[in-house]
Design a protein that fits this description.
elongated; 13 helices; 12 strands; alpha/beta; Rossmann fold; 2 domains; four-stranded parallel β-sheet
Length: 321
C-alpha cells in the first residue's frame, strides 16, 4: 500500500524470499525471513552474497545484525543500520540477547540512523554511539463519518487510546488519572489488547471507574479513523515512544493529543501535542488543559517522499565521505 501511495508499485517486486527492484539510480534487494536460527543463517549468507555487488547495505534494528555483520565481514560494503526503537522501549526487562545485539550493531555498523532525537539520545546513553536522525513520515487514517460516540452510547467527553496493553504504554497511570479529572462526563475508550488487559480492568474496578472505561478490543483498520475522529482527545501515556504512529494518525483527522515525550512531537507545534509525564497528576492536568483549547490543529505534514529523499542524500554523503 505504501508503494501505491508513492506511485512506485510498478517498480517494486514482491516475489518471496529475495525481492529485487530497479529504481533508476538505486537498485534495491528486499529480504523476508523467519527468525529461527536456520532461517537467520540462510538469509545472512544470501545477504552477504548479494552485498558483494552493493555499495551500501541497510538493515533495521537488532535483528539485522547477523546479515549486516556477515556482509560487513565478507565484503567491503558500507553498512548502515536504522534504530526504530530499542529493546528497552518495548520491554520492562529487555532480553539480554536483544540488548547485546543492539550493542554489537552500534559498535560494528559503519553508520547508524535513528528515527528521532529522542531515540538518538537513548542510543548515545545506552550504547555510546551517535546516529544520524532521519524522521519517519506521517501516516494518516480515513474516517468514514461513522459516529463512534453514538454507537458506544457516549454522551460526554471521549478520550481514546489504541495500542498494546503493556506496561510500556503507561495505561495504569491513565486509569489512575481519571478520578482526578475535574469533570464527571468523561469516558475512556481503550482499543487493542495485551497481557495487561485483565489486570487493567481489575484496577479500574478498584478505582471505581469501571463504568467510565470501555474496552473495545482490536479495532479494524477500516474503523480506526472513525474512532480517532470521534474522540475529543487521543491520550498516549507511553513511557517510551521513539516516534509515535498513533499520535500522527490522531492528528491527521484533527484530534488533539495528550502524550508523554515522543519523537514525533519534535516536529510539531506544542498545541498539537500536549506533553505530559508518566504520572497521574500530570496526565489529568494535561487532559484538562487540552480540553480547554479551542484553537485549530495546524502543522506541516512530513511526507514519506521527504523521508526517501533524505535517505538518498544520506547514502550519497556516505559514499562521498
Amino acid at each position: 500500500r505504501f508503494g501505491q501511495l508513492l506511485g512506485i508499485e510498478d517498480s517494486v517486486l514482491y516475489v518471496g524470499y529475495i525481492n529485487q527492484a530497479d529504481l533508476g539510480d538505486y537498485y534495491v534487494d528486499k529480504y523476508a525471513f523467519e527468525t529461527d536460527p536456520e532461517s537467520l543463517s540462510a538469509v545472512a549468507g544470501a545477504f552477504a552474497e548479494r552485498a558483494a555487488d552493493a555499495d551500501i547495505i541497510h538493515t533495521n534494528d537488532w535483528f539485522g545484525y547477523n546479515p549486516g555483520s556477515r556482509a560487513r565481514s565478507e565484503t567491503d560494503v558500507t553498512w548502515v543500520s536504522s534504530f526504530h526503537s530499542l529493546s528497552a522501549d518495548r520491554n520492562v526487562d529487555p532480553p539480554d540477547r536483544e540488548v547485546r545485539t543492539e550493542q554489537r550493531v552500534a559498535n560494528r555498523a559503519d553508520h547508524l540512523v535513528a528515527v528521532s532525537e529522542f531515540t538518538r539520545e537513548r542510543i548515545r546513553h545506552e550504547y555510546d554511539a551517535d546516529p544520524t536522525v532521519i524522521y519517519n513520515g506521517f501516516s494518516s487514517v480515513e474516517p468514514t463519518g461513522k459516529d463512534v460516540k453514538a454507537e458506544l452510547g457516549i454522551d460526554g467527553t471521549m478520550l481514546f487510546f489504541v495500542g498494546r496493553h503493556t506496561y510500556q504504554k503507561g495505561l495504569s497511570y491513565l486509569l489512575y488519572a481519571l478520578p482526578k479529572l475535574r469533570r464527571d462526563d468523561v469516558t475512556l475508550v481503550l482499543g487493542g489488547t495485551g497481557h495487561l488487559t485483565d489486570q487493567l480492568q481489575r484496577f479500574g474496578q478498584l478505582l471505581g471507574i469501571e463504568d467510565s472505561v470501555l474496552y473495545v478490543g482490536y479495532i479494524n483498520q477500516a474503523d480506526l479513523g472513525d474512532y480517532y475522529a470521534s474522540a475529543d482527545l487521543f491520550v498516549s501515556p507511553s513511557l517510551a515512544e521513539p516516534f509515535g504512529l498513533t499520535i500522527v494518525e490522531a492528528l491527521s483527522v484533527g484530534t488533539r493529543v495528550v502524550a508523554c515525550r515522543s519523537g514525533v512531537a519534535e516536529l510539531l507545534p506544542k498545541d498539537c501535542v500536549i506533553e505530559i509525564t508518566p504520572d497521574s497528576e500530570s496526565i489529568a492536568d494535561g487532559i484538562e488543559y487540552a480540553l480547554s483549547l479551542d484553537t485549530p490543529i495546524e502543522y506541516e505534514e512530513r511526507t514519506w517522499e521527504e523521508v526517501a529523499d533524505e535517505h538518498a542524500a544520506f547514502y550519497h554523503d556516505v559514499l562521498e565521505a
